[in-house]
Amino acid sequence: PMIYFITPSYPRREQVAELTRLGQTLMHVPNLHWIVADDNRLCNAMVMELLKKFGIPFTHISSPMPEMYRKASTVPRGVANRRAALHWIQANVKQGVLYFGDDDNTFDLRLFNEIRSTKKVSMFPVGLIGDYGVSSPVIKDGKVIGFYDSWPAKRTFPVDMAGFAVNIDFFLKHPEASMPYKAGYEEDHFLKSLNLTLDDIEPKADGCTQVLVWHTQTTKRPAPTVKIHKQSGTSLKELLHELDY
Ligand code: UGA
Ligand code: MN
Asked: Which of 22, 115, 198, 208 could pair with 165 in a Cys bridge, judged by C-beta atoms 3.0 to 4.6 Å apart?
């Protein structure tokens, strides 16, 4: 089966570096279609040019976060663009496996062999996340009986976005499936919208004993605080905004 690898991405100075590292991982994976979902009004031309260089089949779509969510105290990141990717799959794909691979995460190539055989929803540990350092389903006799995660928050499925994959035929059978604009609850609501039960979950990565994906994060440098240059009425701040920085 084909893997549809959904990457939400947004303009910031680290973006090209993140997508270069990720693209060069994905170059090693056969039968993979990369959906890069831009949190942007239009598909960023620079990103498009970069994507062409990897030689990976890809789809580049854009769907910006609505302004009202950008102003929220905790911003639900990557939702509008992941939703657009899900709609694209609903409209264009019949079978395969979908996976949400954020642009800053780190993927062991063995992960792809694991998720490719997903029948409904597969789950596996994610490293370098939260206070416990790992988030994982808890397995007993080959079955998921609970979850180990440092932020349970009353979630039914306290897992990270990188910790599960979904069979597309199964996904298509739930046309109401969606991701909410609710920071911290995107995964849980999405999985619940698939009417998932613990029994449906297929543990991967050797019974969830192996870490094959890491929730790495790149240190962000805040936008420079500069004196505003008044030049023919355009401030540097406005200029940077125009350039999507
Ligand atoms: C964690 C989870 O691992 C994400 O899957 C989840 O979306 C996110 O929290 C959340 O709920 O906010 P984290 O590392 O904290 O991830 O967040 P980011 O890596 O900053 O963002 C997650 C993804 O959304 C990335 O692929 C990023 O490029 C994208 N994103 C981020 C946007 O598309 N727009 C933004 O404004 C920010
Ligand atoms: Mn991240």
From this structure: 115
Partners of 134 in beta bridges: 127
Of 166, 67, 155, 70, whose CA–CA distance to 116 is shortest?
Answer: 166
Atom of ligand 1 nearest to the CA of 74: 12
Q: How far is the CA of 39 from the centre of ligand 1 (A)?
A: 11
User: ipTM more than 0.85?
Assistant: yes
State in Å: Cα 45 to ligand 1 middle: 21
- Tell me how far the alpha carbon of residue 106 lies from the centroid of ligand 2, in angstroms: 10
E strand or H helix that includes residue 41: none
Q: Are 46 and 245 in contact (CB under 8 A)?
A: no
Return the ligand 1 atom nearest residue 160 CA: 3
In tens, the pLDDT along 104-129 reads 999 999 999 999 999 999 999 999 99
For the chain, count helices (H), then strands (E): 9, 12
Cα–Cα distance, 90 to 109 (Å, whole number): 27
Decide: 188 and 158 in contact? Cβ < 8 Å: yes
134 neighbors 211 (Cβ within 8 angstroms): yes
Ligand 1 atom showing the smallest separation from residue 103 Cα: 26
**CB 202 within 8 Å of CB 170:** no
Is 202 an active-site residue?
A: no
Query: Which residue in the list 18, 114, 186, 187 is annotated as catalytic?
Result: 187
pTM of the model: 0.92
